[in-house]
Design goal:
This protein is an alpha+beta fold. It has four helices and 17 strands. Helices cover 27% and strands 24% of the residues. The model has no long low-confidence stretch (mean pLDDT 98). The structure holds magnesium ion. The site of magnesium ion (MG) has 5 residues, from loops.
């Protein structure tokens, strides 16, 4: 069932969205060679609770942490650990906060030191895919228009589009209907209406999009070991077009570079 939000509810939702972006920025400022993903998670959890919110991910389906930290060939759902980030890595951090009854959900792939030009290009294009998807989030379009925009841009660059993990509706809980795939056909799927709130989140790979889950039951990695990038915002569909709810005073985007 798709829950339609009123204009008043969307205003309230912005509190959770703004905090979720601040949380993601806080995480990104910690990203540098020598830090562990667990250290980032601990700081993020404290930051969320300090602001009177609860982590959107901790305990969700049993997930053990406040961030998903997915390094290099890890696509999504990486578990924070003693893994030390090294120069040239990329790390996707997916995090969000629940406050005022609404859940913010956003993700960003940061550079650890200086990744290769090839890996940076993957990140830049994946962010462009997110922007292209958001541009389609207007009343009267369909879910397939979002997926088509993401997929066609990624594949034009020869990248892989992950099929198994998709965006979603978001509201009082993290995952609501409808699913928002990063692939699709124009004009297909659910018709977009004013008041829908969607987490749009392309997951794009440098090589194959085929993937598997590690023995820990969470971490999803590419089958060929190629890196993946992941960018996400929570977006409201309004009569005036898409409104990104996960934005703070600095806007809806983070720097690519970690540690700044
Ligand atoms: Mg999401």
């Amino acid at each position: 069932m798709i829950f339609i939000k009123t204009p008043q509810e969307i205003e309230e939702f912005k509190v959770a969205g703004s905090l979720s972006k601040a949380v993601l920025r806080r995480a990104g400022r910690m990203v540098r060679p020598g830090v562990t993903t667990r250290e980032i998670d601990q700081v993020v959890e404290s930051f969320i609770r300090l602001h009177g919110a609860t982590p959107g991910f901790k305990g969700l389906y049993g997930f053990p942490a406040s961030i998903c930290s997915s390094v290099n060939e890890e696509i999504v759902h990486g578990i924070p650990s003693e893994r030390v980030l090294v120069d040239g890595d990329i790390i996707s951090i997916d995090t969000g906060a629940t406050i005022g009854g609404w859940v913010g959900d956003n993700a960003w792939t940061f550079y650890v030191g200086t990744p290769s030009a090839e890996w940076q290009g993957l990140c830049e294009v994946t962010l462009d895919c997110l922007k292209a998807g958001i541009a389609q989030a207007v009343p009267g379009n369909h879910i397939g228009d979002i997926g088509f925009a993401v997929q066609s841009l990624a594949e034009r660059h020869g990248y892989g589009v992950v099929r198994e993990y998709v965006g979603h509706g978001v509201g009082h809980v993290m995952h609501e209907d409808p699913n928002v795939p990063n692939f699709g056909k124009r004009g297909r799927g659910v018709r977009l209406q004013v008041g829908m709130v969607l987490a749009i989140e392309p997951m794009i790979t440098l090589g194959t999009y085929k993937n598997h889950t590690l023995a820990n039951g969470w971490t999803v990695v590419t089958n060929d070991g190629s890196p993946a990038a992941h960018y996400e915002n929570t977006v409201a569909i309004t009569k005036d077009g898409p409104v990104i709810l996960t934005q703070d005073s600095e806007g809806p985007w983070c720097p690519f570079q970690g540690g700044v």
